[in-house]
Write a structure and sequence with these properties.
The complex is a heterodimer of chains A (about 400) and B (about 140). With about 400 residues, chain A is of the alpha/beta class. Chain A is built from 14 helices and 11 strands. In chain A, the strands form 2 sheets. Chain A has a 9-stranded mixed beta sheet, sandwiched between helices. A two-stranded antiparallel sheet of chain A has the order 5-6. In chain A, helix 7 packs across helix 11. The longest helix of chain A is centred in the N-terminal third of the chain and has 16 residues. The radius of gyration of chain A is 19 Å and the shape is globular. Chain B is mainly beta and about 140 residues long. Chain B has one domain. Helix content of chain B is about 5%, strand content about 35%. Chain B has 1 helix and 8 strands; from the N terminus they run αββββββββ. Classes of the chains: A alpha/beta (about 400), B mainly beta (about 140). At the A-B interface, helix 5, helix 6 and strand 5 of A face strand 4, strand 5 and strand 6 of B. Bound molecules: zinc ion. The site of zinc ion (ZN) has 8 residues of chain B, from loops.
Chain lengths: ~400, ~140
């Protein structure tokens, strides 16, 4: 049964809104804009949509966000759901959306997510809202920031494996290098390892440039069945594998600080897709903070446990390397509007697999792995996408 | 880490009331399963090991070690700014469970991995005393 969804659903439309500082648009406008752009990319109109998935906006929350979005657009779907799983939100819903298509519940699902964390909220409110991921009785009273919660993981990795701050920094440098090739990215000025190590400490050992951006922006994709996918303007991008893994919700309850449920999620996705990590042409790995990428490289099987630092610093994760990651610049340099963050990894992967990623195109890209996590290294979702050649 | 208006006060509920009552009395309390002796934190309806109910409360020794830590340089909100730089740590208690806390009564720069610590209580309000840790 694990291969029941392999290759049966495809992405036929994908688009981003303007990202970075977008004060002239509300979160709902960004969401609607992303949907209209993705539909245009697919050659469809809003009346073709019979399934809608969104996530809530922190800057402008609705009790029932997907329903409110459908009303705003005046569309009347048969499948409509708002999801909330932190950074893992984007991919954790995709297999539900794919299942809705395969089961015949609907034909055309739009997944759209947007928020305005940069200009739609004060800095204080954005920090407090995001740090509410801490346990309200047993963590939050102590005053942990989100960087502090991830710093606990970083410190444990350093202590267990001898990982050094310059290893973390190499992830930030790589993402910035890729963002420099992406004219839509929020931060494009190249940085060096020294720049990261000289940026101010936020929560030891994490420095400012180890932390992802705070952004406005949104993105959307259009899904349909593989049978229908050939009739669209662009080559379809097929969903080959999904996998989820759950270890804890609050970091003080983690069974391990150095090994995450990314391993389980990745293994499940690879099993469904019938592929191994080594076959990947690229990977988009959740990079809310630089150390997370090292854990993902290890737990997903791209390098041995404990060797993420050396692997990242070797250049292997850069364009032209063995496994280019975050080719659009990631959350560290492209944009990070909160829960919608991984949508951009998705739209970037579609561009890569269509061969339309311009200066940052991975040559011959046919197969890619995407990973997202929510909470504090808590919930994990892996997605494997491929071109027609991989079916 | 004394209380300042605007800090996040723990919302005590029926499940956690004995824990916070213990803190008020200077006692760190953990749940223990009468069937399998498993000791757990935070308080729950069930024993996470054997799913048994009817957990009882025990007084922990208050001893633990630093499993990981960070020094927060940018406070989570204005109310925590006077405390900067402050330590957020995961403490593995001698009884087994891990909990989050602050490490106080020392220079944050002297905190180390695996350092031995012991609990201390900081009265924030009449109802809430926060369990914090200091070098043992
Ligand atoms: Zn038990």
């Amino acid at each position: 049964m694990t291969d029941s969804l392999r290759g049966r659903v495809a992405i036929v439309g994908a688009a981003d809104t303007e990202v970075g500082k977008v004060p002239h648009m509300t979160p709902m406008q960004l969401c609607a804009d992303a949907i209209l752009r993705a539909l245009a990319d697919a050659g469809l109109t809003k009346d073709d949509v019979d399934g809608l998935v969104t996530c809530n906006s922190m800057a402008e929350p609705y009790m029932y966000h997907a329903e409110a979005t459908a009303e705003y657009l005046q569309i009347f779907p048969r499948f409509c759901i708002g999801v909330g799983a932190g950074g893992g939100t984007t991919f954790s819903i995709l297999h539900h959306a794919a299942s809705a298509i395969v089961s015949g519940m609907c034909n055309t699902v739009v997944v759209a997510m947007a928020d305005s964390l940069r200009t739609g909220m004060t800095r204080e409110r954005a920090m407090v809202t995001q740090s509410s991921s801490g346990h309200t009785q047993f963590e939050s009273p102590y005053g942990p920031t989100v960087p502090a919660l991830y710093a606990l993981i970083a410190r444990a990795h350093m202590d267990t494996y001898g990982t050094r701050p310059e290893h973390f920094a190499s992830v930030a440098v790589t993402c910035r290098k890729h963002a420099a090739l992406n004219e839509t990215a929020q931060m494009r000025e190249p940085i060096t390892v020294e720049d990261v190590l000289n940026s101010r400490l936020i929560a030891d050992p994490l420095r400012l440039l180890d932390c992802s951006l705070v952004s406005d922006g949104g993105a959307a994709i259009v899904l349909t069945s593989a049978e229908r996918a050939a009739d669209f303007p662009h080559p379809p991008v097929y969903m080959l594998g999904f996998g989820e893994g759950y270890g804890h919700e609050h970091i003080s309850q983690a069974h391990s600080l150095t090994e995450s449920a990314a391993g389980i999620a990745g293994a499940r996705a690879c099993e469904m897709a019938g592929v191994t990590p080594r076959e990947m042409d690229f990977a988009q790995l959740y990079d809310c903070f630089t150390p997370v990428v090292l854990l993902e490289l290890e737990d997903l099987g791209f390098c041995a446990k404990g060797e993420g630092g050396g692997f990242a610093a070797s250049g292997a994760i850069e364009l032209g390397g063995a496994l280019p990651i975050n080719t659009h610049g990631g959350l560290l340099s492209h944009c990070h509007p909160g829960n919608p963050g991984s949508m951009f990894a998705l739209t970037e992967s579609v561009s890569q697999l269509r061969g339309k990623a311009g200066a940052r195109q991975v040559s011959g890209a046919e197969l890619g792995l995407l990973h997202a996590q929510g909470g504090i290294l808590s919930s994990h979702t892996t997605l494997i996408l491929g071109s027609e050649a991989t079916l | 880490m004394s209380y300042k208006l605007g800090k996040h006060l723990p919302p005590v509920n029926g499940e956690s009331a004995p824990y916070w009552e213990g803190c008020k009395q200077g006692e760190l309390r953990l749940q223990q399963c009468p069937s399998c002796s498993h000791i757990q934190f935070y308080p729950r309806l069930l024993c996470t090991k054997c799913s048994g109910r009817g957990l009882s409360w025990i007084a922990a020794s208050g001893a633990g070690r630093v499993k990981s830590f960070t020094i927060v340089r940018r406070a989570v909100s204005e109310a925590y700014e006077p405390d900067v730089p402050y330590v957020i740590a995961l403490i593995e208690l001698a009884e087994g469970p891990t909990m989050m806390s602050n490490i106080v009564s020392c220079d944050p720069e002297t905190v180390e991995m695996n350092m031995s610590v012991r609990v201390t209580f900081d009265p924030w309000t009449e109802e809430i005393s926060m369990p914090l840790f200091e070098p043992a």
